Amino acid sequence: MNKKNTSDICLRVEDLVMHFPIKRGVFQKTVGHVRAVDGVSFDVYYGETLGLVGESGCGKTTTGRSILQLYEPTAGHVYFEGNDLTTMKKEDLRLARKDIQMIFQDPYASLNPRMTIAQIVGEPLKVFSIVKPEEIREKVKDLLQLVLLNPAFIDRYPHEFSGGQRQRIGVARALALEPKLIICDEPISALDVSVQAQVINLLEELQSKFNLTYLFIAHDLSMVKHISDRVAVMYLGVIVELAINKDLFAYPLHPYTQALISAVPIPDPVVEEKRRRIILEGDVPSPADPPSGCRFRTRCSIAQDICAKVQPKWREVKSGHFVACHFAK
Questions:
Q1: What is the DSSP letter of 297?
Q2: Which residue of 74, 144, 263, 320 shows the fewest CB atoms closer than 10 Å?
Q3: Where are the alpha helices (DSSP H) in 34-180?
Q4: ∠ Cα 50 69 33 (to 5°)
Q5: C-alpha to C-alpha distances, 71 to 20, 35, 82, 217, nearest whole angstrom
Q6: How far apart are CA 125 and CA 133, in angstroms?
């Protein structure tokens, strides 16, 4: 939501809502809804990385899957290069997905154990007829080299690889169709710490080489700080703050963002010792019954009566720095 040309926008999400029905009884009557995503809006510009962060269960992954229409949104619009994905016919949506790919969180679950790497990475090439059938194996070998894997592994199965190698295979599959936008759904959270940096560095190199656009979903703020150009902070189905990377980490305005950033370790013992850690009290409310007014008020140290009665407006406090809090300034 920076003041840029609309022609610079790769992805625009407007008031995205994703509610899951709660069904009970013999007749599976709907008795309520889990409000996983409840009115999310943001833009992603060509060539940038937008980090989407928040606690587990806040709706980050659901947002990513709803953008791709893997979940049919309850309401809202998703515009990719000006075209609304939510109103597209199935065939048009299938063709649009060629330019939007996803790297999934769990490299152990996202690869079919019965398929070889040649079949897994080659499948999108086959489905979209990107190359001739006889050229698919060579293309897959090129993609494996691109993600720093030995092309000789092409006929192996997923169980023969480590977690980091499997995630590289997932990256190769996402790159096969030469997409413009890649949704990275916590791509390093299931990996060893020693491997995480390798995957992040690979993603950065690929972005630079192919001018890719990333929506990077994560709960690790230190990794988001490293890779993102702008950061959106999500809490209980809504975005509470969005800003340029350096502004958000230097001057967090929302109490929830301040608490998250206070938990990120700083590699300077002198600074770390002087820093005040903000400990949030209580648990995250249920998305099936979120608090009235401000979603964060039940855990906020500065909450007042207005926070329970009035939902805070989404406003631009500084240039390019947006927040939803009555008292942020």
A1: G
A2: 263
A3: 60-67, 90-96, 117-127, 136-146, 163-175
A4: 95
A5: 10, 14, 20, 17
A6: 9
Q: What is the DSSP letter of 25?
A: T
How many other CB atoms are found less than 10 A from the CB of residue 260?
Answer: 23
Distance in angstroms (rounded) separating the CA atoms of residues 30 and 313:
31
Q: How far apart are CA 261 and CA 256, in angstroms?
A: 9
- Residue 223's Cβ-side half-sphere holds a number of Cα atoms within 13 Å equal to 23
Cβ contacts of 97 within 8 Å, gap of 6 or more: 68
Q: How many helices (H) and strands (E) does the chain have?
A: 11, 12
Query: Each residue's pLDDT tens digit in the chain (329 positions)?
Result: 444 556 799 999 999 999 999 999 888 898 889 999 999 999 999 999 999 999 888 999 999 999 999 999 999 999 999 999 999 999 999 999 999 999 998 888 999 999 999 999 999 999 998 889 999 999 999 999 999 999 999 999 999 999 899 999 999 999 999 999 999 999 988 788 888 888 899 999 999 999 999 999 998 888 899 999 999 999 999 999 999 999 999 999 999 999 999 887 777 676 666 677 787 888 889 999 999 999 999 999 899 999 999 999 999 999 999 999 999 88
In 3-state terms, what secondary structure has residue 6? helix
Tally of CB atoms within 10 A around 210: 14
Q: What is the DSSP string of 248-276?
A: HHHS--SHHHHHHHHTS--S-HHHHHHPP
Determine the 3-state secondary structure of 214 from DSSP: strand
Strand 213-218 relative to strand 181-185, pairing: parallel
Dihedral, CA atoms, 304, 306, 307, 313, nearest 10 degrees?
-140
Instruction: Give the count of alpha carbons within 13 A of 59, CB side only.
Output: 31
Q: Are the beta carbons of 11 and 181 closer than 8 angstroms?
A: yes
